[in-house]
Amino acid sequence: MSNQMPRPSTPLDTVSTPSKPLNKHLGPLEEGMLLSPVPELRDSSKLHDSPYVEDCTFQQLGTFIHALRDPVHNRVTLELSNNTMVRITIPEIATSELVRRCLQGLKAILPKETAVQVLVKWYNAYNAPGGPSYHSEWNLFVTCLLNMMGYNTERLSWTRHLDFEGSLSPVIAPKKARPSETGSDEDWDYLLSSDYHRNFESHPIAKALRLDPLEVSPSKDDFSQSLSLDSSTLLFSHIPAIFFVLHLIYEELKLNSLMGEGLRSLVVLLVQLARDLKLEAYIDYYYRDYPALVKTSSQTCSIDQVQTGFMLHPSFFSAEPPSIFQWLSSCLKGEGVQPYPYLPGICERSKLVVLSVALYILGDESAVANEASHYLYKITSGEEAFMPSWDCPLLGKLGINAALSLLGQRKPQIEQDDNRCSFKHSSSISSLAEKLVLWMTSVGFTLRDLECLPFGVALPIRDAIYHCREQPASDWPEPVCVLIGRQDLSKQAREGNLQKGKSVSMDPTLLGLGQSSRLLQLCQRTMALPVGRGMFTLFSYHPVPTEQLPIPKLNLTGRAPPRNTTVDLNSGNIDVPPNMACWASFHNGVAAGLKIAPASQIDSAWIVYNKPKIAELANEYAGFLMALGLNGHLTKLATLNIHDYLTKHGSNLVGMSDLNVPEQLYQYMVGGHRRFQAGMHREKHKSPSYQIKEGDTINVDVTCPGATLALAMIYLKTNNRSIADWLKAPDTMYLLDFVKPEFLLLRTLARCLILWDDILPNSKWVNSNVPQIIRENIVSLQAPELPSSEDLSLETLAQAHVYIIAGACLSLGFRFAGSENLAAFQCLTGHYNLETCLSVLLLALAMVMAGSGNLQVLQLCRFMHKKTGGEMNYGFHLAHHMALGLLFLGGGRYSLSTSNSSIAALLCALYPHFPVHSTDNRYHLQALRHLYVLAAEPRLLTPVDVDSNTPCYALIEVTYKGTQWYKEATEELMAPTLLPELHLLKQIRVKGPRYWELLIDLSKGTHHLQLEKSSKIMESNHLVSWKGEIQHSMGTVHKCSIHWSVVLRIPVRDELVHPDQEPEAISAFTSDPALFSFADYFCKPTADLGEKQEILDLFSSILYECVTQENPEMLPTYIAIDQAVRRLERREMSETFELWQIKLVLEFFSSRSHQERMSRNPNRGLFMNSEFLPVMKCTIDNTLDQWLQAGGDVALHSYLSGQPPEESQLGMLSCFLIYHSVPTPAQMAAGGLEGSGNFSELLLRFRRLRLPVRALLRLAPLLLGSPQAMVL
Fold first, then answer.
1. What are 310-347's pLDDT values in tens digits?
2. Which residues form the Anaphase-promoting complex subunit 1 beta-sandwich domain (predicted)?
3. I want to staple 817 with a disulfide (CB 3.0 to 4.6 A). Which of 195, 847, 848, 959 is the partner?
């Protein structure tokens, strides 16, 4: 429809406001109600006169609804017969949560046909134009429901005064109400009889103002005789089932602290139904909950035996009212309990509480294992759930109350003699707490649900959470971490995004250039920079999809003082190859591409978008593509683009021209004489050393390095000594002359990689790789007299010694790569010699200290970086810059792995034969220098404060697994720090007094700690929530505790030191703004507080107790208990809800399960202060005993004898009955207590009723009639 229907709260113009209550016009609802409140217009001439003309444009003559389509929630499109469509919104069936719950209960328990009729009648009444507002929706629902049950709401006293806050629907009130010009006495009586006035009379403000209750004059319309019900109405036969379902909803709402108003509204209806059904146990039950409301309901409606025969009595009905609080109390006391009835989909909170208590208190892990728990009694609808009254022959004689009692006895009973549910010893404390938390999270229980639970019901759950919070598992999902209040772990469990970084340009500014040769030396160093820069900026950048990747330009020019003129390599007379910067540009592109984090969102279009339009930048783009392959992004390239690259650019990029793959493949295929290279490289490749075979012999200068490393990779870490002996250095001078020194380095390296477990970080092992002939004669190199033997070549011995030592040191670097092993570091720093071997040593040092930024290695790198003359060519600069990049790998966030694949990648990247110039690829392809990426792994552990979300320092304890070289060891580190390889660790623990303890057990696996490179750049970004201490001037840690002398009203002695409890001091313990606000508003002292000073001191003590014990969520519980006890002292308890919660709290801490938990773990922190609850209990006992001595015994005696007590005593009497678990008069009569002659006999009989001894001591004088009977 184009326009909305009139709002339900808007009265129609044809209905005026009456001076008398309108519900007197309400009668039984008629069967023939229209589903739509819009009247049917048969005459088209009246269409324009209708007030609903704008809403009924589709109801033209001959037009009808053809189909419904596009339903979304309560909206649907009407497809009309004239090919037009109208979008309408169907009004909701209810907006009040209480009404919605009741409708769901009726729908669940009534037969389908009856339920549909009830919903239709309610829908018509509720959505009629001018219907009730939100606040009067419940009143309208009660009126409709009672009418359908057969009640005459015009004559029922409490329904006559219900306020609808607006005009009633014409469907319910067919008569028009006429306004009254002047007021009348009935108006005043109406106000006195209203719900608002009754609620105000029981409010603490009325008692504080000492307002006496006003007597309401009897209405003229009241009838002295009892009212009767109409048995022909729709729901008359279902009254018992409806009553029981509404009672279960009443119990369900008790578990929601936000539904207090709904409970008070529902209990009035339940009391009326219980009175009419003569259910004394239910009436007594409601009286104990709301004495101030129940006492105002006295009118009953009679149901004779004939009418009783028309009622259907459900088999699930129990004679004793189900009580969720009593069920929990019985579990806490270890008593036998019956299965608690619940409606699926409606009483879900009751089900959750029952199962959680069965698991955590009773220790029954099977309670949550399956849906069919024996702690719950599932109520279902259907004909089998109801039994006609004529099937019971005793109903005609005993009446409805006895009939329902018989039905209640059909439920399965649990033996209650001596069978007590105790805490099972088979389950550990931690397992029960963890299973409870994990199960509650799996069923969707959240912190919001926990905060809505009453504090007594929520206490066992909070206790389990408090236990799990101290030592949670590191692999728990995020909802569990949120529930237990560990925001640090919850944030860690989420998928994090990489922090965007900025590109780093390391281009040098060249000053003081006097010669072109000097410029050439510096350019050699500059061209070797990109490989190291790629290591330093590894995975540190998220590109913008709409922008090209910024690639720093290689600066190969300088400025010459004093005029600061630009100098380049072409300005001098030095012969510079035209392709000198090709591989440098390639490395520059690789370094730029390796900055891209694996988690970056790039696609094929962005890769093609970065393709340069200038031919000179093709080499950089080739390096960029290689980097994308290394970090996993090249797989995103579309197949068409891959084909384009291979067909159009495959033979022009750097790396293809030097290898000449097509020409070499043709040569190997057809054989014959070797074809020479064409083009600019023709003169450079004339050497016959490129032939593998020279006649019938092998050119070992070509084949030896590959064969040596192939053996090392095949037998890597196998400790195969047979193969390792092939690689031993020659032990005679004759054989040494046949092996080049650099081959000795490779042989030593390969042999050590095979004998992996023999590598030790000490000089003795390094020197053990040197043959005996070299060890015996190397000393003579430094001697003043040279050896006389002509068979010894001093140069050969010196070179062999240096290269063998370099090979052993390089293997040491591979063995302890990324470990920061101090012994390996000290061993490597003791060997310096020739330039080549020094570069290898520097790389070995950088591998051991990878990612650590070690100062000594950095100083050595800086020293080597400054050397540009002499033998320092491009290859040496490349090695030094790679060492510097490894030292700060990934900006200090990455380290190296020692897995087999990682060792192979490092061997390819750090191959100890460096190029002589920037275009040298004779012995090793420069592109392979970037394969270190495959060995890099993130291992940075960064603690982040959960409140400020900033990195912080935290002490961690790392436990190493035991190996064949050392036993299990523990080391303390200060995070942020790089962790060792995870397979070497057993566990990691966050320690220190400022933060929560966090244990990461790596024995369960590292899947929760190892973050894939595709998602994060850091190995672990652990978040910690912090615990604070107040640091005093003496440097000691002082934790404040509650001074319960404030609660006990005992003055503090002067010699006792009262702790400094300034509100600002809690900042040392917490950063919660809510706690800061509480301290500011309720704990800050001001002048002239008077009596409020006591409450301020108590609040301050409670606040400090909560924050120092790390359970601030208990602050509302402390305050609620204190406020309830104070109201009890003032005798202002209009309801016993909070007293029930205090009782559950006391029973929980005295329960056997809790005591066994405390005995098993005596060092466990206190969940609640051990002094607070005894003080509260003592105060309650004293208050009730004083009431009992001051006239309360008379009211109690009247109650036990079945007489109505004095109305002024009803509130305290209900508190006494609840707190001391006093049975109902009917239960006491059934127990045969009247005939008891002494206290011993009384005690024996009370045992069957499970009455506490403390209650029996107070009831004994009344039951025995003599105070002397207290003496045994």
1. 788 888 888 899 999 999 999 998 888 889 998 998 99
2. 939-1010
3. 847
8 Å CB contact between 424 and 299: no
> Residue type at 660?
N
pLDDT digits (tens, 9 = 90+) for 516-570: 777 888 888 888 889 989 999 998 888 988 888 888 888 888 877 767 777 777 7
- For residues 42, 48, 54 and 58, what is the CA-based torsion angle, rounded to 10 degrees? 40
Question: Cα(340)–Cα(238) distance, rounded to whole angstroms?
Answer: 22
Q: Which two tokens stand for residue 543?
A: 């590109």
Query: Is the pLDDT confidence value at 696 over 80?
Result: no
**d(Cα 386, Cα 407) in Å, to the nearest integer?**
11
Give the number of other CB atoms < 10 A from CB of residue 812. 29
CB 119 within 8 A of CB 108: no
- Count of residues for the chain? 1272
CA 561 to chain centre: 64
Mean pLDDT of 155-162: 75
pLDDT higher for 896 or 54? 896
Write b or e for each residue in 425-445: b if 16 or more Cβ atoms lie within 10 A of its Cβ, otherwise e: eebebbebbbbbbbbbbeeeb
Q: What are phi and psi of 492, to 5 degrees?
A: -65, -35
| Surface-to-core class of residue 483, CB atoms within 10 Å of its CB (0-12 exposed, 13-18 middle, 19+ buried) | buried
Give which of 335, 349, 546 is closest to 422, Cα–Cα: 335
Task: Verify cis geometry, omega within 30 degrees of 0, for the bond prior to 976.
Answer: yes
Strands (E), 832-976: 894-896, 936-938, 940-941, 944-945, 954-960, 969-975
Q: Which residue has the tokens 């919850």?
A: 490
**Residue 1271: what residue type?**
V
Both tokens assigned to 713:
């990779």
Peptide bond into 322 cis (omega under 30): no
CA 759 to chain centre: 46
- pLDDT at 1034 > cutoff 70: no
Instruction: Assess whether pLDDT exceeds 80 at residue 1232.
Output: no
Highest-pLDDT range among 200-209, 454-463, 545-554: 454-463
Question: Which residues, listed in sequence order, are joined to residue 989 by a DSSP beta bridge?
Answer: 957, 999
- CA atoms within 13 Å, Cβ hemisphere of 1018: 20
In angstroms, what CA-CA distances link 1193 with 524, 827, 1207?
105, 91, 14
Q: How many angstroms separate the CA atoms of 503 and 885, rounded? A: 15
The amino acid occupying position 147 is N
| H or E stretch covering 1103 | helix 1092-1108
Distance (Å, whole) CA 30 – CA 144 = 11
Using DSSP, state whether 671 is helix, strand or coil: coil
Q: For 499, what's the count of Cα atoms within 13 Å in the CB-facing half-sphere? A: 7
Residue 1119: how many CB atoms within 10 A of its CB? 18
pLDDT (tens digit per residue) in 826-845? 888 876 555 557 889 999 99
The widest CA-to-CA distance across the chain, in whole angstroms, is 143
- Lowest-confidence segment of 446-455, 842-851, 1187-1196 by average pLDDT: 1187-1196
Q: What is the pLDDT of residue 131?
A: 67
Beta bridge partner(s), residue 340 = 376
Single-letter code of the amino acid located at 708? T
Helices (H) and strands (E) in the chain, counts: 51, 25
Q: How distant, in Å, are the alpha carbons of 729, 752, 897 from that of 725? A: 9, 11, 27
Please determine, for residue 238, whether its predicted confidence score (pLDDT) is greater than 90: yes
The torsion angles phi and psi of 160, rounded to 5 degrees, stand at -65, -25
Q: Residue 1106 CB: number of other CB atoms within 10 A?
A: 25
Residues 6+ apart with CB under 8 A from 355: 367, 368, 373, 375, 376, 439
- Does the pLDDT at position 114 exceed 90? yes
DSSP reduced 3-state for 447: helix
Torsion angle (degrees, nearest 10) of CA 345, 347, 349, 354: -120
